[in-house]
Amino acid sequence: MRRGDAHRSVIPSRQASGHRGPTDGMTQRTDLDISTRGSSRAATSGAEGAFSSPVVTPYLGKVRAFVSPDRFDHIRRVAVLALQIATSNGFTPEDQDRVLLAALLHDAARDMSDEELLSLAQPENEVEAAHPLAMHGRAARRLAARWGVRDPVVLGAIEGHVFGVRAGDAVGAAVYVADVSEPGRGVNDDVRALAMSDLWAAYAQAVRNKVEYLQREGKEIHPATLRAYESLT
Questions:
Q1: Helix or strand or coil: residue 32?
Q2: 41: nearest Cα among 93, 3, 2
Q3: For a 10 Å CB count at each end of the chain, is N or C smaller?
């Protein structure tokens, strides 16, 4: 499902139709208990290795159906980098799996139209009312839950990648940093390098970079982003 595609139907109509074809994961469930899974991608590297993990394979087709090829390439790069950050910072195998799954799902709603986003999430402030795309993290969290993801750490990281995460949420911080610094963006190389040795310093720098950029450009700053920024001081 891609943002701007005038020929697709909105989510409520897909659900009402009862169709459960290969591109419709809205009503299908794949329960996942990460704590009982082996960390099978520990011995592999790169995107293909990461995405061969049984932690993410049930969701690959669902995500592909909702995003453009370019978006999926971004997701792939985020997943690889997030996993590298997690490994470098000594995450447990279980948290490495959480990082990988959250990275795969974080932009599942990024290419949705405003109408589709509003069918999954309601604005909570003026910024979201004016710019529904700001809700794509919350919408992706809702999609993930409908697809059977139950782990609150994974769900929180999916939503938190847009505006920031709570203190101590290392899984969310790894996904946030990977999202803003993956090589395809061409920015935040310093953040990416720092994350390999000090995740929280990199996270703080990433949040500061985002707020300072928005301030320079005179753009609206989401209240949650401001809270994340103020929590660093």
A1: strand
A2: 93
A3: C
Fill in the amino acid letter for 210.
Answer: K
In one-letter notation, the amino acid at residue 115 is E
Residue 84 has phi, psi (to 5 degrees) of -65, -40
Here the tokens at position 167 are 């203190």
For residue 32, report the phi and psi dihedrals to the nearest 5 degrees.
-140, 125
Paired strand residues for 131: none
> What is the pTM (predicted TM-score) of this model?
0.81
pLDDT of residue 160: 97
CA distance 82 to 178: 5
Q: What share of the chain is helix, strand, coil (3-state, %, to 5)?
A: 65, 0, 35
State the Cα–Cα distance between residues 78 and 137, nearest whole angstrom. Answer: 15
Handedness of CA 155, 109, 215, 176 (dihedral sign): positive
Q: Which residues contact 62 (CB under 8 A, 6 or more apart)?
A: 25, 28, 108, 143, 147
Q: How far apart are CA 188 and CA 21, in angstroms?
A: 40
- Measured CA to CA, the distance from residue 67 to residue 56 in angstroms comes to 16
Q: Mean of the pLDDT values across residues 31-54?
A: 53
Q: Write the DSSP assignment of 142-187 as a string of letters.
A: HHHHHTTB--HHHHHHHHHHHH---TT-HHHHHHHHHHHH-GGG--
Q: In whole angstroms, give the CA distance from residue 198 to residue 192.
A: 10
Distances (CA, A) of 161 to 29, 44, 52, 169: 23, 25, 23, 11
Q: What pLDDT score was predicted for residue 214?
A: 94
Position 75 pLDDT exceeds 60: yes
